Amino acid sequence: QVQVMESGGGLVQAGGSRRLSCTASGLTFDLYAMGWFRQAPGKEREGVSCISWSGDITRYADSVKERFTISRDNAKNTLYLQMNSLKPEDTAMYYCAADSGHYCSGAWWDGSSAKYWGQGTQVTVSS
Questions:
Q1: φ and ψ at 112, to 5 degrees?
Q2: Which long-range contacts (CB under 8 A, 24 or more apart) does 115-120 make?
Q3: How many angstroms separate the CA atoms of 12 and 97, rounded?
Q4: Which pLDDT band holds residue 18 (cuts at 50, 70, 90)?
Q5: What is residue 57's predicted lDDT score, i.e. its pLDDT?
Q6: How far out from the chain centre does Cα 15 lie?
Q7: How do residues 44-78 score in pLDDT, each as one tens digit?
Q8: Whose CB among 17, 18, 45, 118 lies 3.0–4.6 Å from 4's, allowing a Cys bridge?
Q9: pLDDT score for 79
Q10: What does each C-alpha distance from 6 to 10, 50, 96, 127 come to in angstroms?
Q11: Distance (Å, rounded) from C-alpha 22 to C-alpha 69?
Q12: What pLDDT is recorded for position 38?
């Protein structure tokens, strides 16, 4: 049984930093591209970032470029999202997902190629 679990969410002041983690079990972690989505109340789900199976290719939404950094440790089956210079508009539930392929495809960004999802971790940025 595949399990994907996020952690690290919480309340942070604007301008602050937070690191999210995602651990996955029941799957061969290093076969899959992985990434993060987020969804704010009343808004559609948004693809935030994606990383290839080996970690050598990363992609970011324009809204988080230069502020967020995605990384992975395949030996620990863990994905990370380092979030810096946080803004109130970053407030959302953040979800980790494993893609169905090795690389971040165009289909990643609408979530249609994601195969496994976590339950989410809430990040709230206060102004």
A1: -70, -20
A2: 115/32, 116/2, 116/4, 116/24, 116/27, 117/4, 118/4, 118/5, 118/6, 118/22, 119/5, 119/6, 119/95, 120/6, 120/93, 120/94, 120/95
A3: 23
A4: very high
A5: 96
A6: 19
A7: 999 999 999 999 999 999 999 999 999 999 999 99
A8: 118
A9: 98
A10: 12, 15, 6, 24
A11: 14
A12: 98
Q: What is the pLDDT of residue 106?
A: 83
Count, residues in the chain: 127
Read off the pLDDT of each residue in 15-28 and give the average, rounded to a whole number: 96
Query: CB under 8 Å to 9, separation ≥6 — which residues?
Result: 18, 20, 94, 121, 122, 123
Q: What is the pLDDT of residue 107?
A: 86
